[in-house]
């Protein structure tokens, strides 16, 4: 079970008391209730927890406010979750649209709005008017829960309720007690298997932090950072063993392969240098090289001769394995400068080429021109080079001899390279496919996690890769990865599918979510 799943299943006394009070106030009447708390008090978690566990008998609507949303968008999000195929004008006041859609029939509606301090004064007045209308309408029960930061809505709510007999209710989210802080920390870090020292340090950090869920969840990131830094500073035993093996191998190589064996060869090969210098100096001064130098220089050193003989004996002759040398100059015709060039008319050349293609030597075509035949006989060799003669005459006359077109010389056309794999393209835009789903449809949210790896681990743990989808959103500037499942045309079908999930998956308590809300959460990433 992941940490986020463990937190979702955790019930603390202060939170249970708050949710039970909300359930009591919304059970038999219509009210507008403001639930306030400071930053990180867990308002979003409480809103979703109440919808999942404490408000099963009502038609639910959830609105997660964003600064970029307008009043028309807020009205549209709320009204689309009330009925399957709503017909309304998003510019009309909220109470008028609800009255047209529900008519005079009974209604039990629950509107939960998170980050309600981002609502405008106009929309808050419409929500208050909707609750007042429900109190006067038989068969209607409409409750509005506004989860907001402390003191942000007091001014607007006092203005809309001024001079009326009723007033909005307000509940406050209290901080955790010391015991609840320790319980919360033990649950979220239960999978880390910390030792006694680590648990003691974690309890000290929790005691120094603010007693709210948001601050305590930040300890998870701090703990992961400390663990990563400690691992980077400590060398693993395998690394130390590899370094020792490399040092030992270098020592053995130095012992068994000493570097002093090549010194005599260097000393002996350097000895001919004075002879070369003397040879060069003698050549520059007198112009005589071999005779005088051979008289003035001593005989070659016998040790060098013996060394060269030993080296020659130790070398294996493998020259017979080498391929034949490649001739860089191709075979040509007519390179001799002693013979006389003969220029023939083009018609004679064509006749000779035609005769050679039919298997002849070209002599018959040449015999038909006596003057040309006599000139050719004087200028070329006898009949053993008749084939080459015809080709050179054609080249001299300016015509190119046609050659056969062997199929083996035709190079195949290059095959176009297959496009490279585009596996990197995946997961750069999580949830892109979900934008194509009708925004009036519904899905089941299975989990909300703070990292993609945790979301993938959740899917693998519950074996739901064939039905689950992940998309990314932002909450208070932090990334969240939501795991959802299904595409249902209405909220009734979604609730029916929720009861048909496997028992081990129902333990995480999935809840219904509209695709309109999913689309807006995906847009927050931009």
From TrEMBL:
GO terms for molecular function: ATP hydrolysis activity; peptidoglycan binding. The keyword Membrane applies. Residues 287-309, 314-333, 400-423 are annotated as: Disordered. This is AAA family ATPase. It holds the Pfam family SPOR. InterPro entries: AAA_22, ExeA_AAA_ATPase_DNA-bind, P-loop_NTPase, SPOR-like_dom, SPOR-like_sf. Keywords: Membrane, Transmembrane, Transmembrane helix. Residues 436-514 form the SPOR domain. The keyword Membrane applies. The chain crosses the membrane at residues 239-259.
